[in-house]
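1st attempt posting a full record on here, be nice pls
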Amino acid sequence: MAAGEPGYLGGFYFRFLPQRTFSSLSTREITSRLRQWSMLGRIQAQAFSFDQTFQPYQKDDFVMAFFKDPNVIPNLQLLSDSSGQWTTLGTEVKNIEAINVPCTQLSMSFFQRLYDENIVRESGHIVKCLDSFCDPFLVSDELRKVLLMEDSEKYEVFSPLERDEFLFRLFKHLCLGGSLCQYEDMLKPYLETAKLIYKDLVSVRKHPRTKEIQITSSVFKVKAYDSAGVCYPSAKEHEQTFSYFVVDPIKRHVNVLYHCYGVGEMA
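the predicted structure (as tokens):
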């Protein structure tokens, strides 16, 4: 098969799965939170299936084949920089970047230290602090200090490896939100929403012999480039603009979680 024809890269072919919906982003309670965090209408998950055995070392071939696939090109959604409307890629991908994101956490006890370190009170209230800026984010509480301010004494509560975990990344993305994000006073909405999205995207199974729960998904943070530069998730780069590919090698599904930083839908 000639280079440039779909399917030649690593032999992966894809199918869009419109029937696979993600309740973690669409229930009434979550929708209302995403609206408050200025992410509603700018965050989306989509599922695609693929037809070959997947090994994590094949990630670059896999992601390149994805962006070249004729079933992906008309279905993969992103927000247009110019119109702010949902659209499809409309440009030829020349290059990709797929960064491994560790995904090992099986419990929300990962965040217990926020209570232990007095970042959050026993009642669940986030401890406030004097306002400062960590461009472009307003830091008005101890939680945002932990997330953003490397010189803060509490920053080391999470190690660099733990901060790289997919669960931590989801939690941080939700806490920081979109450009008109209204922060929560309580920790619970962030934890609950992160847990629901994580469980919706990531696959687990019981080990047949040990009966231990294992995560089977591989997670990659993805960018795509056309001849002009970055074209996906957006030509405008921002810490809160992202796309994660969550690959289930057993079901042969890939869940794509996308967000583009900006002003979310209002009431």
